[in-house]
Amino acid sequence: MIEVDHLTKRYGPHTAVEDVSFRCEPGTVTGFLGPNGAGKSTTMRMLCGMTPPTSGGATVVGRPYRDLPNPGRVIGVLLDASAQHAGRTGREVLALAAATMGVDRGRIAATLDLVGLNATAARRRVGAYSLGMRQRLGLALALLGDPRVLVLDEPANGLDPEGIFWMRGLLRDFADRGGTVLLSSHLLREVEAVADRLVVIGGGRVVAQGGKDELLAGAGTLVRARDPHALRLTLDRAALPATANTDGGFVVRADPGAVGQAAADAGLVLTELRAAGSGGLEHLFLTLTAGSSTREAVR
Ligand SMILES: Nc1ncnc2c1ncn2[C@@H]1O[C@H](COP(=O)(O)OP(=O)(O)OP(=O)(O)O)[C@@H](O)[C@H]1O
């Protein structure tokens, strides 16, 4: 269980995180979404005791991170996959962490196996690792202490499609066994595939949170027609609010039945009609966080 309670972080006059609150329950994966500079990493760093909050607090299984006697046994953290000493081998990194946490060395091989780093990779220095291998090692470090909670900042960064698919299964399995996962990602489809709940942050504030299905149901319907121009006119006439997608379709703020009926009444041939799904998540994300990445770019 993770509880983030009215966290605020200011750097001088700049507010990076403002009054952020959410909970992550056991058995769930929570996707933490937001554009560049939205405050995701800062929130995660505060949760993991690496950045002191200006106000508010956060707990992991009921205690602030800094009060956990052996945090690695409770919460596995992957915030920066490049943080490992480049001169150590993967196995040395894990051996050091196992000694610090009091974890049986026998778990090292099993954890390496779990994250798909073979014996040859484990013998190589981290400096020679690809980004994807560093992510896998970071995940191994997070899992080594057999924690109940995982906090992962952009864990899919640098992973190939197969690696992303593998990680999805790993996180789902972790949650299905009663674990709590908080993960940030820019890969909306990936988050949609694995998360049960979403917290969307923009400009340091939570702009939406809730069950993924519930949020996506509010994201509307994706519709495409052979004649997009006629579809636009039809949607306007039926007073169904629609936004054009980049790929010629429309996201409509109505359920698929209403959109299909309007199209049928107008005699239109539709080539796609469905609940918006990942198109909806992208749309929801862009709508909710509109302007905040621009603000970041010009700050
Ligand atoms: N140590 C710091 N000093 C000053 N400003 C900071 C510091 N750390 C973060 N910030 C600012 O806080 C804001 C939030 O940054 P943060 O890294 O948390 O965003 P993010 O959502 O993780 O972004 P990204 O997706 O790009 O990683 C940004 O405007 C950033 O410039």
From TrEMBL:
Protein name according to UniProt: ABC-2 type transport system ATP-binding protein
**Entries under Pfam families matching the protein:** ABC_tran
UniProt cross-references to SUPFAM superfamilies, sorted A to Z: P-loop containing nucleoside triphosphate hydrolases (SSF52540)
Q: Does the keyword Transport apply?
A: yes
Q: Say which family it is in.
A: Belongs to the ABC transporter superfamily.
Enumerate the UniProt keywords alphabetically: ATP-binding, Nucleotide-binding, Transport
Gene3D superfamilies assigned to the protein according to its UniProt record, in alphabetical order: P-loop containing nucleotide triphosphate hydrolases
- Domain ABC transporter, residue spans: 2-228
Give a yes or no for keyword Ubl conjugation in this entry. Answer: no
Identify the InterPro entries for this entry. Answer: AAA+_ATPase, ABC_transporter-like_ATP-bd, ABC_transporter-like_CS, P-loop_NTPase
Q: GO molecular function terms here?
A: ATP binding; ATP hydrolysis activity
